[in-house]
Every structure is written in structure tokens, then in C-alpha cells.
Design goal:
The complex is a heterodimer of chains A (about 350) and B (about 325). By secondary structure, chain A is an alpha/beta fold. Chain A has a single domain, classed as Rossmann fold (3-Layer(aba) Sandwich). Chain A has eleven helices and eight strands. In chain A, the strands form two sheets. A six-stranded parallel beta sheet of chain A has the order 2-1-3-4-8-7, sandwiched between helices. In chain A, strands 5-6 form a two-stranded antiparallel ribbon. In chain A, helix 1 packs across helix 2. The N and C termini of chain A lie far apart (about 65 Å). Chain B is α/β, with parallel strands linked by helices. Chain B is built from 14 helices and 14 strands. The two termini of chain B are about 40 Å apart. The chains are: A alpha/beta (about 350), B alpha/beta (about 325). Chains A and B meet through strand 2, helix 5 and helix 6 of A and helix 3, helix 5, helix 6, helix 11 and helix 12 of B.
């Protein structure tokens, strides 16, 4: 706990049921295997541009989004495959988007960094660091003004904390007591520069607390801890408690993007964090508690492998949007198009 | 009919929108308790309350972004940015979010947001409060830009702007707030996609917008005394440009001068001139002329500020240079 005035989320009251934890395991495995396949597809040239993988960070997306209701809103970053899948975007539509196909969740207009799904209130896919925070504040303001008891979960990384928009959004959300759950995925590096080289205060929850926002730091490698903290925070926000802030201490096992040679981290550091891989961690916990029956993990892996393969086939069979449609959706089509000479 | 100021016309438009549509609310710096930097929102806090007239901190990117989010969430926000210079602090949200979300999401999202801001020079407020940066913002696909130059447009453009499903930026030239004009008590709807012919003429087309419309009309009056008949076009909508209206005029007059308070290089005047030459080069009797601001940060001293801004005499001279 960083904010001395915030209540500490306990780890046992309203404890996670085994059933939910098995579900969260399944979601983490889906995301992991999906992204591992993305690496292969990138090497094969089927996926291009920037590809930011969240391998190692799955517990953050899965734990928080698992605590949300379908009507809640999610604002995510450019490292958002996991958030999209956890939110319920199909693996097919997500993979097709990564391959730039019309069948993708953004019709191939967005790619890896800009996954959107209005039907599930998934507002992207924002590749301007901290750019999504003011949007989340606005979504919550709309809910407040319309009397909707909805929570907006806004994900961002530790790098965002250095941006002015972070501070502007913290202040607005606290000032107006808006229902936003700020979810900081602190993976210790803003692209390739360690937090200690960019922040005078590296305790990020303290920054949120300075805006009088209840702020908790959470072990982002333990989905049980994330799940527990997120459910408490979501309940508090939905109950009218104003914005809350979770700092999830996590780590990405792979480089920042496929272009990143990863020169700035000690290999031993990466290996140490891999020992805290959220998936084996939960598997061993569930096995020990007896929640994961013999053969259950193998069946899960087989199901996920089939789902990934189906998505790969779907995306490969996807169509290219006709080039003559490139101008669609710049503005709404009910409005007269640009009048040219 | 009544004679009111441009400021009062904007206020009436905002008040009408708040009364007609409960999704409409307003936020910005000093709009509530202070009453608005230019007093446009004076009295609205008392009338509509703090939920719908929201004072914001000095955080342009934060509250413009919040306006975008609120628009995504089903509201119809009117965000006031104090001046166009300050809008630069929100340019990330305007460009990377408001203008882009619809396209980037494959048409799933709309941002029905109106951002109002003061623009332009003439009040000796120097180099950080006086510029006309409409041309920069007009560069961005996905936005609609409006420049009400008359009291009537100040009264009538807001409602259709709020009904546009996409983001609309409204530029209010600071020198216009005290100008007076006649408006209907219940004004007819206006088309916010069209330019307007403000004065008919045969010899030259003078194309202006916002604060320079008065300059263009003053020049046309002076030219009339010299036997030159000038048509004056008010662009009204800076993006998308209503090219057919000004190109048709130039086809008739065979000469054109564009008046733009922005800097010449890379300006709206450059875009208008290029469109004319692309479309009707062989109808021209002379090269397209331009009158723009001097390419300097705006100076404080009155005589220097006047020298930098387009003046009536500059427009008259530009027209005479074309042989009209």
C-alpha cells in the first residue's frame, strides 16, 4: 500500500473462487499462445508494422477486465492484444486486424496498435502514450452526466506517468469524482529506458495518491492479487467512490516491439522475472489446491491451440478492403463529402 | 428581428443548444464563475448550473480529451479553448484522437464534439495570443472547421455543428465579439458546408473568412469608388472547403485575391489559390493574388501590429496589381 490513507485490499475476503481462477488461467493461456503465434506470423511477413507483445503481463489485463461488467468501458494502449481478447473480441477478428484484413475488428485500418470494438465498449488501441487517459475521463464524465453506473477501466504503462496528460487526467477525474479505474501496468521500462532514469519519484501509486485518488500497488505477476484488487476497486468505483488507481508491478518478457534489440536489460534480470511467470505461477497454485484436475491443463492447451489455429486460418483467408474505399470513415457518411473543384 | 453583438449571438446559440438537447454541456477555462474570457458564457452558469457549465483547470489536453471521451459516451460537448494559441496544448487530442478515432476504428466510433476558440489579432496581445492558426488545423482530415464572420452565422452555426456526427472546430475572431448585426429571433437553419457570396461583383473575386471578411468588404467598397466591381466570398467552412462556390465566382470575374490573416507560407490562402489554378487556370486574366499577415510573431506595438495584419489598403492594392 502506498497511499497511507487508502484502504488495503485484503486477499481473502470475497476470495476468488477456484472456478474463476481456472477461467482466468484460460484467458492468460489464450493471450500467451495468441501472441506467440503472432511472433511466427511476424517473421513470416503476415503481420507488419509495429507489434508490441504483452507476454509476461497477461495477469494485468485478465485480472482487471475479469472484474468488469459487460457495460463497462475499456481504454487500452498499443500493447493491447491481451486486453482485447480478455474483453471478448474474437481471436479471429483480432488476428485478421493484425494482418490488415477487412474482417479485422477495425477493418484493417488500425492494426496491432488500434484494436477497437464498439459492441463491447472497447475504445482502443491508443498509441499516444497517456493519450487514452483524458478519453477515459470523458467517458466517465458522460456516464456521470447521464446517471449511468458504469466503470471505465483505463490501462497505461509506467511511461505514461511522465506525460502531462496523465496529471491532467488524474486531476480532472479526482476533481469531478468520476468513475474511472486507472490501471498502470508498470513494467519498469518506458520503451527502453528504465523508470529510475526518467522519474524523480518511482513510486507511481504515490503520484495518484497525491491527487487524493485511492491508489494500491499490486503484484502484477499474480493474477489472484490483480483479480482481488481489481474487484474491490471496481466495486468502490461503481459504488460512487470516485476514481481509483492500481499500480500493477509487472514485466514484459520480450522486447518493446519487434524492432527492439533489447540492449538495455540484463538477461539475468529477464530470467529472474520469468521465474515469476503468471501462468506457471497460477498453474502450480491451482494444482496444489486441487482446482486443476489431472489433464485439465492439457485440454485447455489443446482448446487454445485449436482456437489460435482457427484464427490464423480465418485471417489468412480474409479479404483486402478495396482500395477505392480508402477514403471511407474519414467523416461520417451521412455528411456530404469534401466538395472538390 | 433584433440587433445584437456577435458575443450575444454566440451566447444565444449556446443557450438554445443547452435548452434543446440535454446531452449538450459546456466546459472550458473560466467559462463559469468568471463568465468567459470574452464574456460569451456570462450568466450561463447561473442559468444551467455547474454540471452543464463546467469550469476546467488549465489543462487543455486534458479537458479537450475529456470532451472527446464524453462525445464517445453519448454527450454533445461544447468545449471552449481560450485562444487558438492555447489549442496547441490540445493538438494531440484534436489530431490523434478526435480527427482519427472514426477512421482508425473502421467507422465504429463517432466524435460529435464542438470545440470553440477565439482567434486572430488586433487587440495588442502580442505573440502568444494573436495568431490565426486555422490553416494548420484545416490540414487535418476528419475535422470540420467553421469561421463565422457575421453575427448571423455566430447565431446560427452552432446548432448544425452540434448535430454533425464528427468533430467541429469553430473559430471566433476576437475582433468580432463587439460587432453588431441583425438576427432573427428564431433563425432559419444554415448550411455549414457552403461558402457565401457577401457582395456580388464582376471584375475580381476577393475571398476571405472570419476576421478578414470585414477587410475584404471594406476593400470592395473602396474599389467600387474607383470603378472596380469586386465580388466578396466568405469561405465560412474552412474544411472541407466549398471550392465550387469560389471557383464559379473566379470563372466569372477572371481575377482573384485571397485575404488570410494567417501567415502566407503553407496557409489556407495557399490552398485556395492552388485550387483555383488547378481548376480554372485558363479562365484567369492574372495570377491569383494573396494578402496575408507578415511572417513574424505578432508584435505588441499598435503600429507594428497594424502593419503585420492585412488591411483594406493592402487588399485594394493587391486587386489593382492584377490590372482590375
Amino acid at each position: 500500500m502506498t497511499n497511507p490513507t487508502a484502504e488495503t485490499p485484503s486477499t481473502d475476503a470475497n476470495g476468488s473462487t477456484d472456478q474463476r481462477l481456472v477461467h482466468l488461467l484460460g484467458e492468460m493461456v489464450r493471450i500467451r499462445r495468441f501472441e506467440e503465434r503472432c511472433v511466427e506470423l511476424y517473421s513470416a511477413g503476415a503481420i507488419r508494422g509495429f507489434l508490441h507483445l504483452g507476454i509476461g503481463e497477461e495477469a494485468c489485463a485478465v485480472g482487471v477486465i475479469g472484474a468488469l461488467s459487460p457495460e463497462d468501458a475499456v481504454v487500452a494502449t498499443y500493447r493491447e492484444h491481451g486486453h482485447a481478447l480478455a474483453r471478448g473480441l474474437s481471436m479471429r477478428a483480432t488476428m485478421a486486424e493484425l494482418e490488415g484484413k477487412l474482417e479485422g475488428c477495425s477493418r484493417g485500418r488500425g492494426g496491432s496498435m488500434h484494436l477497437f470494438d464498439a459492441a463491447s465498449n472497447f475504445y482502443g488501441g491508443n498509441a499516444i502514450v497517456a493519450g487514452g487517459l483524458p478519453l477515459a475521463v470523458g467517458l466517465a464524465l458522460a456516464d456521470h452526466l447521464q446517471g449511468r453506473r458504469r466503470v471505465t477501466a483505463c490501462f497505461f504503462g509506467d511511461g505514461a506517468v511522465a506525460e502531462g496528460e496523465f496529471h491532467e487526467a488524474m486531476n480532472l477525474a479526482a476533481l469531478w469524482h468520476l468513475p474511472v479505474l486507472f490501471c498502470c501496468e508498470n513494467n519498469l521500462y518506458a520503451m527502453g529506458t528504465a523508470l529510475e532514469f526518467t522519474e524523480s519519484e518511482t513510486d507511481l501509486a504515490l503520484k495518484a495518491a497525491s491527487y487524493r485518488i485511492p491508489a494500491w500497488d499490486v503484484d502484477g505477476m499474480d493474477v489472484r492479487a490483480v483479480d482481488d484488487a481489481a474487484r474491490r476497486a471496481v466495486e468502490a468505483v461503481r459504488g460512487g467512490g470516485g476514481p481509483h488507481f492500481l499500480e500493477m508491478r509487472t514485466y514484459r518478457f520480450r522486447s518493446h516491439s519487434m524492432y527492439d534489440p533489447d540492449r538495455y536489460r540484463d538477461k539475468a534480470e529477464v530470467e529472474r522475472w520469468k521465474e515469476r511467470d503468471p501462468i506457471p505461477l497460477l498453474v502450480s497454485q491451482l494444482t496444489a489446491s486441487g482446482a486443476l484436475a489431472d489433464g485439465a491443463l492439457e485440454r485447455l492447451e489443446a482448446d487454445v491451440a485449436a482456437e489460435v489455429e482457427d484464427a490464423v486460418v480465418f485471417a489468412a483467408a480474409g479479404t483486402d478492403e478495396p482500395v477505392e474505399d480508402v477514403g471511407r470513415f474519414v467523416t461520417s457518411e451521412s455528411v456530404s463529402p469534401e466538395v472538390g473543384p | 428581428m433584433s440587433v445584437i453583438t456577435y458575443r450575444e449571438a454566440m451566447r444565444r446559440a449556446i443557450r438554445e443548444a443547452l435548452a434543446r438537447d440535454e446531452r449538450v454541456f459546456m466546459m472550458g477555462e473560466d467559462i463559469g464563475h468568471y463568465g468567459g474570457t470574452y464574456a460569451v458564457s456570462l450568466g450561463l452558469l447561473e442559468e444551467f448550473g455547474p454540471e452543464r457549465i463546467r469550469d476546467t483547470p488549465l489543462a487543455e489536453s486534458g479537458f479537450v480529451g475529456a470532451g472527446i471521451g464524453a462525445a464517445l459516451g453519448g454527450m454533445r460537448p461544447i468545449v471552449e479553448v481560450m485562444t487558438v494559441n492555447f489549442s496547441l496544448l490540445a493538438l494531440d487530442q484534436i489530431m490523434n484522437s478526435a480527427a482519427t478515432l472514426r477512421y482508425m476504428s473502421g467507422g465504429q466510433l463517432n466524435v460529435p464534439l464542438v470545440i470553440r476558440m477565439a482567434t486572430g489579432a488586433g487587440r495588442q496581445v502580442a505573440a502568444q495570443h494573436s495568431h490565426s492558426l486555422e490553416g494548420w488545423l484545416a490540414h487535418i482530415p476528419g475535422l470540420r472547421l467553421l469561421a463565422p464572420a457575421t453575427v448571423e452565422d455566430a447565431r446560427a452555426m452552432l446548432w448544425p455543428a452540434l448535430n454533425d456526427p464528427d468533430p467541429v472546430l469553430i473559430f471566433e475572431h476576437a475582433m468580432l465579439y463587439n460587432t453588431e448585426g441583425e438576427v432573427a429571433d428564431d433563425p432559419a437553419p444554415v448550411d455549414i458546408s457552403r461558402a457565401a457570396i457577401r457582395r456580388a461583383g464582376d471584375d475580381v473575386t476577393i475571398i476571405a473568412y472570419g476576421g478578414t471578411l470585414r477587410t475584404a468588404l471594406g476593400a470592395a467598397e473602396e474599389l467600387a469608388g474607383q470603378g472596380v466591381s469586386a465580388e466578396v466570398i466568405d469561405l465560412r467552412c474552412l474544411r472541407p472547403l466549398d471550392s465550387p462556390t469560389f471557383i464559379d465566382a473566379v470563372t466569372r470575374t477572371h481575377r482573384a485575391v485571397v485575404v488570410d490573416e494567417g501567415w502566407r507560407s503553407g496557409s489556407l490562402s495557399a490552398e485556395v489559390a492552388a485550387r483555383i489554378t488547378e481548376a480554372v487556370f485558363y479562365d484567369l486574366d492574372a495570377p491569383v493574388g494573396r494578402v496575408c499577415s507578415e511572417e513574424v510573431p505578432m508584435p505588441y506595438a499598435k503600429h507594428l501590429e497594424d502593419a503585420v495584419m492585412p488591411q483594406v489598403a493592402d487588399v485594394v492594392e493587391a486587386v489593382r496589381r492584377l490590372g482590375a
